[in-house]
């Protein structure tokens, strides 16, 4: 069980403290309650652009990385459709450097046309490299558009298109910052050989005077229940045909989320999974295949994707997946399969808890979605899934009308 203490500053910043006296390092994790789902449809990619802008200098600190490196620290960040997370790990004796750096850029970025121009170009190059010029790079852009008609999950974190990033204006950037990057919309978690009083003193000193901002009230349009299967075809210059299939599942806090996660383990996680054993090894329809889910806070997707083996048609491959789903629905899962998938999840949870940075990250995440104490309930929720409840989730997920299929075809020579 992970132990922690919490307090809240007057400006609304929630602070968690996790004590660990077995390490000379300290992890400082700052999580903002903003992701790509919170963007305007005409201004997508802003949350991710901000991840880059936050390293471009703040009011009193022109270079973020330089003082951190001098203090022996490392940092990084990531953006999802739901959250934006910044984290630092450094020697305990230099903990105040992390508070100084994070508080100054929360106070205010050094907004400038130059900084925006630099980071805009960086993001545009990333867009081109990973989404336009990479084989299958646009697959998730396309799959999201098929699966979502209403909810902002229909665009990826990188943004809907290059033009929206290229035309981002400084005033738009400032408005986004002061709407979302405020103490009242953030969670700070500090993990290491620290006391709550020590962290409280530092938090008050460095974050206490920052204006709280207005709490962001999320009012996103719900995705309507899908009643008709959707299929789209695309032809591109890729080495192999590929099949992408997605089904809507419940959000992160729903009980059936845990059953859906176990389904992905049984169906397509690793070489012993059903899809790999049957469709890669036995029938040799695919050269690779996997099953996973998006893990999103709002209702997300369970996905199966695979590269079709040369000599097999994309139709044969797609039918192979459909057969395995039918087999799952007709035969169910064995107790051995369920136990094995649960053991893998339990091992993953235990492995994650070994890292100080992961503990800080996860505690902040669970606090953001409701209560940091949820972290200690996770394994119990997986453990409570029975073969019967898993099959209820499987039948609801793989029902007729809920499937979204992208057939990504290799362009053949004339």
Helix content: 40-55%
Strand tally, please? 11
What structural class results from the helix and strand content? Answer: alpha+beta
Q: Count the helices. How many?
A: 15
CATH homologous superfamily label of the largest domain = Metalloenzyme, LuxS/M16 peptidase-like
* CATH architecture descriptor text of the largest domain: 2-Layer Sandwich
Q: Determine the N-to-C terminus distance.
A: 62 Å
Order of helices and strands: EEEHHEEHHHHHEHEEHHEEHHHHHE
The biggest sheet, with number of strands, parallel, antiparallel or mixed sense and barrel status, is: 6 strands, mixed
Task: Output the strand order for the largest sheet.
Answer: 1-2-6-3-5-4
Mean pLDDT value:
95
Task: Write up this protein.
By secondary structure, the chain is of the alpha+beta class. It has 2 domains: 5-207, Cytochrome Bc1 Complex, Chain A, domain 1, CATH 3.30.830.10; 230-410, Metalloenzyme, LuxS/M16 peptidase-like (Cytochrome Bc1 Complex, Chain A, domain 1, 2-Layer Sandwich), CATH 3.30.830. 42% of the residues lie in helices and 19% in strands. The protein has 15 helices and 11 strands. The chain has a 6-stranded mixed β-sheet, sandwiched between helices. Strands 7-11-8-10-9 form a 5-stranded mixed β-sheet, with helices on both faces. β4 (74-79) and β5 form a beta hairpin. α3 (95-107) runs parallel beside α8 (196-207), α9 crosses α12 and α10 crosses α11. The longest helix has 20 residues, at 113-132. The protein is globular, with a radius of gyration of 23 Å. The model has no long low-confidence stretch (mean pLDDT 95).
């Amino acid at each position: 069980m992970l132990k922690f203490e919490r307090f809240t500053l007057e400006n609304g910043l929630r602070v968690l403290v996790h004590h660990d006296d077995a390490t000379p390092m300290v992890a400082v994790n700052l999580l903002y309650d903003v992701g790509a789902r919170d963007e305007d449809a005409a201004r997508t990619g802003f949350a991710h652009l901000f991840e880059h802008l936050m390293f471009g200098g703040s009011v009193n600190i022109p270079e973020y990385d330089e003082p951190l490196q001098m203090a022996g620290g490392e940092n990084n960040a990531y953006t999802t459709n739901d959250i934006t997370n910044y984290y630092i790990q450094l020697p305990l004796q230099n903990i105040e450097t992390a508070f100084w750096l994070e508080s100054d850029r929360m106070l205010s970025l050094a907004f400038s046309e130059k900084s925006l121009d630099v980071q805009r170009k960086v993001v545009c190059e990333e867009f081109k490299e990973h989404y336009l010029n990479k084989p299958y790079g646009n697959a998730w852009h396309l799959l999201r558009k098929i699966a979502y008609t209403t909810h902002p999950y229909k665009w990826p974190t990188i943004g809907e298109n290059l033009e929206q990033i290229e035309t981002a204006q400084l005033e738009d950037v400032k408005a986004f910052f002061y709407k979302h990057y405020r103490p009242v919309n953030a969670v700070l978690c500090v993990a290491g050989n620290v006391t709550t009083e020590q962290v409280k003193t530092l938090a008050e000193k460095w974050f206490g005077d920052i204006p709280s901002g207005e709490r962001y009230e999320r009012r996103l349009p719900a995705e309507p229940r899908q009643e008709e299967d959707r299929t789209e075809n695309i032809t591109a210059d890729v080495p192999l045909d590929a099949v992408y299939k997605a089904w809507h599942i419940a959000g992160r806090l729903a009980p059936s989320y845990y059953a859906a996660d176990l389904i992905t383990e049984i169906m397509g996680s690793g070489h012993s999974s059903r899809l790999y054993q049957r469709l890669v090894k036995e029938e040799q329809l695919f050269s690779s295949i996997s099953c996973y889910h998006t893990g999103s806070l709002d209702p997300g997707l369970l996905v199966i994707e695979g590269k079709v083996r040369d000599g097999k048609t994309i139709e044969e491959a797609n039918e192979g997946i459909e057969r395995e789903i039918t087999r799952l629905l007709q035969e169910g899962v064995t107790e051995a399969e369920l136990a094995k998938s649960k053991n893998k999840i339990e091992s993953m949870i235990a492995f994650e808890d070994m890292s100080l940075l992961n503990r800080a990250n996860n505690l902040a995440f669970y606090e953001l979605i409701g209560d940091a104490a949820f972290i200690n309930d996770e394994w119990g929720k997986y453990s409570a899934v029975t073969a019967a409840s898993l099959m209820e989730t499987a039948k609801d997920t793989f029902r007729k009308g809920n499937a979204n299929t992208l057939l990504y075809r290799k362009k053949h020579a004339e």
